[in-house]
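discrete fold record:
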Amino acid sequence: MIQTLDLQRLAAIGLSPLMLQHLARHELPAETSASLMRVTEVQRDALQLHDGHREWPARALPALLQTLVAQDDALAVGDWLLARRNAFGEWWAEQRLPPLTQLARRQHDGRDKVSRAVIVSNVDTALLVMGLDLDFNPRRLERYLAAVRVAGVSAVVVLTKVDLCADAAVRLRELQPLLPADGALLAVDARDGAAVRLALQPWLGAGRTLVLLGSSGAGKSTLTNALLGQAVQDTGGTRSADGRGRHTTTARSLHTTPEGACIIDTPGLRTLRLDSESGDVDAVFDDIARLAPMCRFRDCRHDDEPGCAVRDAVAPERLRNYRKLLRETERDTQTALQRKSQLALWKQRSRQVRAVLRAKRG
């Protein structure tokens, strides 16, 4: 069996009772001397693993990597692994235990292939960080909220740089309708460590894992340092022209707070395409989903159809964002044959339009 588990030691790096129950439900090797460890950093083929006492450099066995690639999956910070030392004292990861939760995004390879990029695994709460300066963008926040809800992760929206915003209360009221029923919304000055830890105290319980998501310059690294009580992550300024920050955080990394929670800081995401099906988007935009059955037509797209119950009840910007996310997920889940068929249809329509224009010109 697995080496005797020191539950108190592993709880310090996020092995919660729920996570332990999840791992126990999966069939593990009957006889192995491997150790249960958690991934705290991934750098290409190099890993940092934590055993509850200290971190160790490690590599993943090629067989493990090949298995994950075949499943359109990958190792990520927050994963739990079975690893063992070889005769030279080197740690090798031999099995990834199925994650309880996994945040991922879809990305294109520049051609026509869509793949999954795993962001983090086994997190309880996502801190969605957005600055109250030029970084403020409700439509981008909707996308982040959709991504974490699809993954089954609870969300806390943390608005930073409250000291730079004269109308913070107005912006809080603007964002409140976007939150799910179990979501929370906070405005903080990330430089005030004591105030930040007090505001986020309900989510910093021992054994819990939080991930910080947001754009570059939003204040994720400053917030991480405030929660850890020390300057662990580098921070940088933002450009005055557009409020964008430099990528001071270049890799995802896991740290533990004085309260016993685990914090995963992440680099700013330039794009975030949902790792979901179109039905998941409908479930995330539940206000639209509630109104849709009242539309005159069952297949109403809430665009220019007569008798639409959604169009007049939902803010135009939110409805446009919903339709955009829906189009993205529909494209990303199409097979190569479906994409080829759709491209042929667009070309046919384009030829028809050009023919009509030529006829009008005589």
In short: The longest strand covers residues 35-43. The first helix runs from residue 7 to 11.
